[in-house]
Design brief:
The protein is of the alpha/beta class and 182 residues long. The model has no long low-confidence stretch (mean pLDDT 96). 41% of the residues are buried. Strand 3 and strand 4 form a beta hairpin. Bound molecules: inosine 5'-triphosphate (ITT).
Amino acid sequence: MKKQITFITGNENKAREAQEILHPIKVKISDIGYPEIQDKIENVATNGAENAFKRLKKPLIVEDSGLFIDAYNGFPGPYSSYVHQTIKNKGILELMKNQKNRDCHFKSIVAYIDKDTTKIFKGKVVGKIAHQQKGKHGFGYDPIFIPKNKNKTFGQMDMEAKNQLSHRRKALKKLDHWLKKQ
Ligand code: ITT
């Protein structure tokens, strides 16, 4: 079993969650970055991992995630980061104003790479876009995402409650299972 892997990310929330799940494997955070190609998030993550591995030459993971809204054929999907920086949650609520179908999901792709293997692990959580922003916890789209069978947004849940359900947790759990079999 690997003793340590590096998580290439600028987002400390992600790294903290990964450390909790992958323990006793140590998760080191590194912000060396990678080019985010415009493609499906599966390819963004794999490409990013390959790019970072060429420089770091150590076992590492890259995670790419996004919010996919059914009424807009999966938008913002791979553009989630840019859309969140530009029109923000307020802009998404505006787009959803007269929409009856508020179904959506978060998807997470974790790409793992070492000198022998490249592998991806997927996680998904389905839910609905709320009618208004609620809650101060979390980040990104959390205040407008209500997971299925719940009546609170991710923003109204503390980190532990959100992480029980999160797309990223599901992907990281699959990685954990696989790593511990190696
Ligand atoms: P990296 O450095 O790892 O790329 P990031 O914060 O840019 O971190 P992503 O590109 O994977 O993350 O995520 C795309 C956007 O999707 C991100 O900016 C968030 O706005 C949103 N997002 C992803 N996961 C989320 C979550 O668990 N809760 C709320 N929003 C999330």
